[in-house]
Amino acid sequence: MQGAVLAHGQGRALAEPRMHLMPPNDGAGHFNVLRGHLGVSGIKVVGDFVANYQRGLPSELGLLTLYDPETGIPLAIMDATPDRYAESARADLREAIDWLRAGFHPYTLNQAA
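Predicted structure:
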């Protein structure tokens, strides 16, 4: 994580402003969309649905996708639910890069779970 923060400070990483998607669901929940680049490009979508606990689900559910910045080829699709992985998009991205470098195969969902 320290290396990611340093890279961002040196202009070698990009963390764009968070976007929100507010579906017409009477306030039941919304989605946060986080985008960034640190060696690979990543998009993280986190759904925030507070009443999910009544269904036995986490209130936040997430998905992280990683892409080759030169070709746009998808490299990974990962569960990014905050209680299972890191809280921030940059930490998720750094963890995903480490997994890819360790030999996890692209196009694998929840391989490390």
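Summary: The longest strand covers residues 30-38.
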